[in-house]
Design a protein that fits this description.
Distance between the termini: 23 Å
Helix content: 40-55%
Shape: globular
CATH class: Alpha Beta
Keywords: Hydrolase
Number of helices: 11
Strand order of the largest sheet: 3-5-6-7-8-9
Organism: Adhaeribacter terreus
EC number: 3.1.3.48
Number of strands: 9
Family: Belongs to the metallo-dependent hydrolases superfamily. CpsB/CapC family.
Structural class: alpha/beta
CATH topology: TIM Barrel
Protein name: protein-tyrosine-phosphatase
Length: about 250
């Protein structure tokens, strides 16, 4: 198995270290690997390349979460499941041992609220977890109301990469209040390595120190995200993150 990790990741020592650490997560619950749906993998071939890398990293299950966003990414549960089956068949032909499933990353906008109000079926993962994101810059005026509606509909809200929202920088107590209100937090692993920004890294570290992280995800869109994981694993807070009672392994 180690030789396979080395083939996928590159140098043997780095490969063994990264794969050995990430394997404990067992499942990744945030990625954009399904082909041709959003700003992630564009083709089936690129999807397969990402899945192969994830196998090498030690993941046993991938829950892939394409964007669903108003008039921009008009993905539907039916369309997402169709691409899931396409990728499942291709992975099966390769003989790779990994489970593939899907959910979605819902953008908090008026279209999403309308779906809730109309009781449209939404894509979830695990114990009815619903992954959502907001604008990175502007705080939604209806965030608290949206959380209440999500919960009232029977879903468990999971906020994607809370460390990346600049409108929350300097307002860490708002994140604490959201979690107290039942919003679970999903950290992007690469935030620990400083991939997105120093600001995102600082908030990620603070979330880990505060034991506020419930899920860890790759948010993989391309090979560069997976290659950077080596730096994330080497970060001082990665061990602290893995010591938390993360819910990935329950998926």
């Amino acid at each position: 198995m180690k030789s396979f990790f080395r083939k996928i990741l590159g140098s043997s020592k780095a490969a063994d270290t990264v794969a050995g650490n990430l394997a404990d997560l067992k499942a990744d619950m945030h990625s954009h690997i399904l082909p041709g749906l959003d700003d992630g993998a564009e083709t089936l071939e690129k999807s397969l390349g990402l899945v192969e890398k994830m196998v090498g990293l030690g993941y046993q299950k991938l829950i892939m979460t394409p964007h669903i966003m108003g008039d921009f990414y008009k993905n539907t549960p039916e369309g997402i499941r169709e691409k899931l089956e396409l990728l499942r068949n291709a992975v099966q032909e390769k003989g790779w041992e990994i489970q593939l499933d899907c959910a979605a990353e819902y953008y908090l906008d008026e279209w999403f609220i309308r779906k809730l109000e109309n009781n449209e079926p939404l894509l979830t993962f695990g114990d009815n977890y619903l992954l959502f994101e907001t604008s990175y810059i502007n705080e939604p005026s209806f965030l608290k109301d949206a959380v209440f509606q999500i919960q009232s509909a029977g879903y468990k809200p999971v906020l994607a990469h809370p460390e990346r929202y600049t409108y929350l920088y300097g307002k860490f107590t708002d994140l604490e209040k959201l979690r107290e209100a039942g919003v679970l937090m999903q950290l992007n692993l690469n935030s620990l390595g400083g991939y997105y920004s120093e600001g995102a890294k600082r908030v990620a570290e603070k979330l880990v120190d505060g034991k506020l992280v419930d899920f860890a995800g790759t948010d993989a869109h391309s090979q560069k995200h997976l290659q950077f994981l080596q730096k994330a694993v080497a970060s001082k807070h990665f061990g602290k993150l893995m010591a938390l009672p993360l819910r990935n392994s329950q998926l």
